[in-house]
Structures are given as structure tokens and as C-alpha cells.
TrEMBL record:
Its cofactor is Ca(2+). Residues 478-501 have a biased composition (Low complexity). GO terms for cellular component: extracellular region; lysosome. This is Arylsulfatase K. It catalyses: an aryl sulfate + H2O = a phenol + sulfate + H(+); Hydrolysis of the 2-sulfate groups of the 2-O-sulfo-D-glucuronate residues of chondroitin sulfate, heparin and heparitin sulfate. It holds the Pfam family Sulfatase. Residues 29-366 form the Sulfatase N-terminal domain. Belongs to the sulfatase family. Residues 478-526 are annotated as: Disordered. One of its GO terms (molecular function) is glucuronate-2-sulfatase activity. Its EC number is 3.1.6.1, 3.1.6.18. Catalyzes the hydrolysis of pseudosubstrates such as p-nitrocatechol sulfate and p-nitrophenyl sulfate. Catalyzes the hydrolysis of the 2-sulfate groups of the 2-O-sulfo-D-glucuronate residues of chondroitin sulfate, heparin and heparitin sulfate. Acts selectively on 2-sulfoglucuronate and lacks activity against 2-sulfoiduronate. It comes from Conger conger (Conger eel).
Amino acid sequence: MNVFCVAFFISAQLQVLAFGFKRNATFRPNVVMVMSDAFDGRLTFDPGSRLVQLPFTKYLREQGAVFLNSYTNSPICCPSRAAMWSGRFVHLTESWNNHKCLDGNATTWMDDLRKNGYHTRSLGKLDFTSGGHSVSNRVEAWTRDVRFLLQQEGRPVTDLRGDETTVRVMTKDWKTTDIAVEWIRKTAASLSQPFALYLGLNLPHPYHTDSLGPTAGGSTFRTSPYWLKKVSYQNITVPKWLPFSKMHPVDYYSTYTKNCSGNFTEQEVRDIRAFYYAMCAEADAMLGVVQVRWWACSPCSTVLLFTSDHGDLAMEHRQFYKMSMFEGSSHVPLLLAGPGVKKGLQLPQPVSLVDIYPTLLDLAGIPTPAGLSGNSLLPLLSPAAVPPAEPRPDWAFSEYHGCNANASTYMLRQGRWKYIAYGDGLSVPAQLFDLSSDAEELHNMAARFPVVCQRLDSLLRRVVDYPAVSRKCSATAGRSSAAGGSAWGSSTQTSSAASAGTGTGRGTPKCTRAPSTSGWERSPAPNPVSAALLLSSAPRLQLQNHRLSF
């Protein structure tokens, strides 16, 4: 069957759905989870969905529920996946970066399903245990605290492959998807017990840039004319960038280390964004292949879930990649459909990836183990669900301790506000964004709303003693920074004052404190000391022979 002409086939299967799930021992739904890599969650609903055709994501949204404010618990691959699989915040499992994550014997929700009679299968990208990126991330765990800038990524470039008939650009993901579909068709269909299938995709993560060597990250946005035709190029905007002098010091550091401090033409920026959206369209098609098999085999007994480990800034804030609390990086898709999920729900509650663990166990009627950071989403998804014993939190939390950011970062999203604290809470100024009026996150409102900062910081400290976590992360990485993961020259006395807090709100940062402007961090020129460690910039791709048409 041609998977790109299945809309009629899928529509014909709608009549067999029956919603209204009540947890009981006689019915346990199958679970199919598709997790992409670097998929911006804002593309799964309006207005972001107008940028690119994502028919299968749209279909899943219409037949189930989409969370409008879903967040990663750490905007980088391995820690984010560690949180999703374990159901615990990354500081609790010490999943600091792409080198240090979960132990191989850590318990996951898949383990709990298996112990309770589910037949389980995991395919594709997992990436939640320690050591997967060992060489580069061992180095980068140190370089983020040194006092000179290091360009750690290749300059973002685009790469057009094939022609208008080239569908399978990311062949590795397509092969894994084919295996998943065949497994559902042959194995799952013959099982007498419920099953849980996980499919991990690499798309739309940028491809490895070959010219930068085997240990470099991904800075190449690669697609084909087939997928570019799915992009509404006329709707792509060039993001507004703050001048370097107005950037928050951590954002400036990220811009430089991601090799985005040089000049970019508007055409370059538009093309990078267009190629990224096209890569999202290819990932959506893989989700569609799974959808077809889902509807053909077991639409009344299988829950289908789609999410991602993090997003991609795609040149917003003069950055690409993730590693940031800005929406493009931290906002992830979260859509569910199947028995127990009311159709057409668009849920505004803030949620995060740690909620997946208790949700899947709740759907399966399995008691939730103690110590999880998340909460079941089932009460939000189905009016027939058992009400929770306690109201779920009205906030979402994320943290980051990896490369390309020179301070441990903590984000709390509650209502209209996004609050971001750094390091010890004193050395680096906090940020506060009003997402209801500033969706682009260009205006730090911390100085204007100090009371809001104090309230959110107090709440954040009840979630995590972040100065202590910052110090622990620094010590784990072998760094000597006394300020708890900050390279901004704060004193030991300042750090001690912050550590005196007990997680109850003491030591609230001064939100009006101006960003550091001392010396090197405002200079775009590379430091001579770091020249031997600098990664060479990837050459710009000339699109003259591949003129885009939309």
C-alpha cells in the first residue's frame, strides 16, 4: 500500500473507534509509542501547523488529544530520554549530559509493563544510558566552565538530496519503521497478551556534518525536493534576533559555541528553517506508516502516542539545535489517541515527558511506583478516568546541565509565565518571559516583575534545590567552579549564601541584576588559547544550482 495515499483508508476505519476508558483488570490496551528527535512541538497545532503539511500528526490530533504546552525535562537527547523512560527528573537520576545518564539496569515503564504481562519490543533510537556520546561529552562537560569561548558545533548548513521522487532520505529511520510495521503485522497481531511497542526515530535531528570529523555533532539540515514541497515557504518568517549587546550572557555563549555568531543572509535562515520543516514532514510520514498498521489491526485496543525528546531552534534566537529553554528547543509534541482518549481535545495544561510513565501504567491498570516525578495524564484525557487523589501540578519543569550553555539552567512554566534561573541563583541573572504577549521570547520581564520572579523562584526551589544541584553537577564533571556551574566569576561567599536555602524559597535571586558584560563574553573573535580546539566551520551550501520552489 502506498502510505502517502492512505487518507481514505484511515478515514474508513474511524467508525470502529469506541472511546470511554475505565481502568479495570479485564481490558488492558496495547501501547504504540513513536518518539522522534528534535521535533518542535509547536508544529502540531495552529499556528505552527500552517508552516508544513503534517497530515498524520494532524490526524492523530483530530482523533485524540494534543497537549499545547508539553515540555522536555531536559533539552538534549540522552537526559531527556532518561527522564521519559524513568519518569524522574534528571537531577534525581544524575543524568547530567549526553555522557552521564541512566545505568543500564535502571527500571523503565517498559520494564513495568513487561513484569505485568505485556509483550514488549523497542526499536530504533533509545539513547538513555550512560556512555553513548562519551568522547565529546566528557570534554564538553569541562569546556562549558572555562573562561574562553569554544566553537563546539559546525555552522548550520542545508543539503538537498535526490529529486522530487526521493521519499526515503533518512534511510536508517525508514528501515526501522518498516521493521516496526512488520512486527505489528506478524507478531503483535498473533499475541494473546497486550503488547507495547516503542519506535525511536532520528529525524528531524540535523545530520552529522561529515567535514567536521567523526566526533562532531549534527549541523546539516538534509532533505529532498519531495519533502520541501510540503513546506509553506511563504509562511516562514525570519526570526528577530537581539543584538549581541542585548543578549543574556548564557544565550550569547550558546550562540557562539553553536557557531551562529557569524553573518547569515535572510535566504540562508529561511532555507535552514524550510529544510528543518521538511525533515519534520518526513518524520510525520513515518508516523503515518505506523498509523496505517495501527488502524488496520487494532484501533479499538491500542493507544498511539507521539512525542519527541526536544525541539530545534532552527535559527530562532540566532541558534540552531537544542540546549536552550526557549520554546523552539524545550516545547515538544505530545499527542495520544485510542481507547480512553476523548477525540479532538486540545489541552492547555503544562505537562512534560515524565508524565508518560505514570500515564501508560494508569492505562494498563498497573499501580504507579513511588518516587516518580510525573503524574498520569489520564484524568485530563478521559472523563471516565478515575480522579487523582491529589490535583496535578499546574507547572512544568525542565533543567539543563550539558554543553553549549555555560551555566546549569532551570525552567519553570506556569500559566503565562516562563521563569529561567541559572547556576547558584545569584551569579547569572534570571529570565522571565510572558508567553501570552511575547511568544518569540525577546523581552526579559524579570526587572519589571520582581514579585513574579520571587514567587516562581520560591516554587522552583520547592521542586529542586537548584544551587545544590548545580554544585553537584559541577563536582561530578570534575569542574572547580565554586559558583555551582557558572563561569561568570562569582565568589565562594555568594555560592554559600545560596546554599543556605532549604528548598523553601530562601535566597531568591535579584531579578533586576544586569547581565555580566566583562571582557571576553562580548567579543565575537575566537580566543587564541582555544584555537587548537576550535572546530572548523562547515562551508556554506550554495543553493544556486538547487533553487527552491514552493
